[in-house]
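yo

u said u wanted the structure for the complex thing, so here. seqs first:
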Amino acid sequence: MLIRVSRCVAIQVGALAATFVLLGGTCSLGAREQVVIQKGTSGNTQLRAADSWIDGTLANQGTNHGAATTLQVQSLTGQAQRTLVMFDLSIVPNAGIKSATLTLNVVSPPLLTRTYSANLVTSFWNEPDVTWSSRVATTPWGAAGGDFDGTVASNANVGLLSTTVTWTVTKALQTWYNGTPNYGFLIKDNTETSLAAQTTKFSSKEDATPANRPTLTLTFLQNVANLTTVPGNNAITLNWAYPTPIPAAQGGSILENYAGVVILRRTTAPVDKASFPADGAAPPALCSTVGTGEVVFVGTTANTSFTDNSTNNTCVGAGKGAPANGTMYFYKVFTYDTANNYSSNPAGLPAPRDGGSAFTAEAGAMPNPPGSTEALLWLTATHSAVQAAPGIEPGSQVDVGTDTNLFFALDSTTGQHLYPPVSLGGIITGRPPILDATISSIGKQVAYVAARDNYVYAIDTTTGAILWLIDPNGSTTNLFQGGAAVQLKSLSGAAYTLANDLVVVGTRNGATNSANSVIGLDGNAGTVQWTYTGTPGATTALDIISSTPTIDYVNNSIWVTSHANGGASQPNLWRINPLNGAVIFSGNFNGIDIDSSPTLTFNADVLFVGTNGVTAPLASVIDGELFAINPKASSVVPVVSPAVQGAVVAFYDDGNDGSVVGFPFVTTTVPPYTVIYTTNTKVHAVSFNPTTNAFTRLWTTTIFAAPFPTCNAGVCSLSAPVVATSLNMVYAGGSDGFLYELNLSTGALVKKAVVDTNYPAVVGDPALDVTNQRVYVSTTTNDQRSYAIAIPF
Amino acid sequence: MGPAPQMPAPQPQPVQASVSVCNRTPSGCASGASFSLGTLRDLAVNADWSHVPAGTHTQTTEILEPGGGLFEVKSQAFAIADNSDGAVQTEEIVPVSGTMITQRRITGAWKVRVSLDTTMSVTQTVQLDP
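structre next:
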């Protein structure tokens, strides 16, 4: 039985437990759970944690203290010292944060009372490298002494008698959980110009006594777990479980009990992030409106299921009431506790991710008559546009890299975060390949992530720990747009003599149109195996690379496409030796840039390459075309525009519809090969016979035409395709918020599934999970999310 | 003669910024308010700050799609020395050619919002045409 004594005090009376919350005699909303995060206590390994201190003394500005047992803060003119501390929040991956404090143990205090600020660090840093001057290896801070937000997150005093110092950092944690990269805190003296040193030493996470190490105390409400929807006939059933509280053995404690859930519903688009019940207020009334959501259910902890139908949903009005067949409905499910806290973050946080319920559990479904299979399996917030297709470990994990430097690892069944996103140093625009531990030479389930900060990262995807990182060019402008390709030693023949897997990346340095690079990295150590850097010349100049390289195990080659300085004077296709980076041949065909990745047949006897298209206002119009290349050719591909010469054995042109997008998809393992590719508004299927070197058109289907004639703002585009051969279906994302399904044999449009109809929901490249029979996509709307959709629709 | 009259302490001037954009290519940076996707290589976002107080600051550059959604966020920190006039110029490069913007033809009125320490911001519209 629950007795509400007042707004701020609640008593839970049960058979065995009574909880009374009244903090310091003042009104406190309290929270459901609390956890104390500290390395070495309660079994917490803090695998992704880091701390260090940096020294502004001129002679010491290059000294790293990452392994020190103390952290230091000092005020002294010209010799300031600052502390960096970052926590691993993996123990609480899916939650709304209600309060947070950072506590450091004082080893030796200053002589005089000082005020120390905790500031949010705004750039990625690496504990073994960080110094006053540099944040990673040889990459300097933007401002020596650390990059941080000039707005102080929290102040705290430390004096001669201080044994600990505590900062209130609630908003910092809330912004991190709302999608701001977590680079930790920088602790500094607010006045660093003392004439006599005022120094404080704190215990670091390397302190021999675990209880002395840095501590982060969080109070929070976890989201519901295992949220699923089951569509029915004019009905949708939601099922969920209440989260398992963090046990005391792991530093957890229960402050207040869950009271139940509040469920909001919206038609045709997800409930936006600004729609959430206010902490401290009683659950909103049924059928009332909260932001863009309508309250369709308020339940207690006895409820773990709700069927949205005409019996349970009696709301009256346009779009209200029982769900209608053929309409997509989205739900947002909040847990709440006995003090009416909700599993959301508050409004009013600093821009750009300014609060809201972005991390609350969400679901969606389209009710249909019995027999229909269309199902949106889950959706989850990613907080920014996502340019990269998701990487998948089929059947278990989906990894999404975002345009705000975050690498999300999602449970492929539920969409829940396996751990808080890994904060990298740059935007991730290429699909991250995920390798299973059984086949990777590093012996771990690893993702190789090429980012826009010029770094390549190896991430252990079971924990989120960064295994290694490298800026292989030492340049500030050699960013990576395409993804990394990996040549697995375990799948390579005897000719592959490198010790470990090879990670291959290409640079997109817009400042040069001739000196970009293709780089081979050791997959275990992250060291550079080789680099090819272009030089001016008809066969050597390397313009920007936007695509992901292709590994050719049969012909011992790496295939790379590039821009060609907008014309025919530079190569746009490269064949490179994986052992040493030597260019086997390079050439230009069609006289145009290439952004799509090449695709090999299963037998590696044909390489398909799709070129860009050029339209007005440039002088000439060149259409995007599909080329068939002989991958065994060793000679330079002649310049053709277009023609069949040298290694180019055939080309296919299906009308002026812009560039070939993403990559061609080869659906057959034996010739003649069926190839599916997309251009702006069309999906194409062609057959290629390597005996006659001839393309044959199978079908071309125009999307955004009858029966689905719309696209946003008149600008139509399609993603790269994926093909589920076992279902005989093709899938491609549109610029209108829909995912399209076509019959592989005929090209007939079968159906389109709602992903997000908010403008302008450009649906990105899908990833196909044949194990779970679903596709994963991301979008670019105001409330950016990733989705899992069952196939066939 | 009495004591010299006390001068009032100078009031700090408010931080100000202007933002402009240009098409950054290896051969230079062509200014404009609208660009064709066929010719735009990198969008350079140039911020010209004045009266920034001494200390470390972080500039955040947000790229907003025509629909208002957050597309990209980039940040860079800089330090203003004591006794400085608080003026600083920054450049942030947003790759366009070969990215999702050109491959998916996301045209329309984009916005560039530049802020300092999440306290003040300046917004500039950039028209991207097919």
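The two ends of chain A are 45 Å apart (CA to CA). The longest strand of chain A covers residues 95-108.
cya
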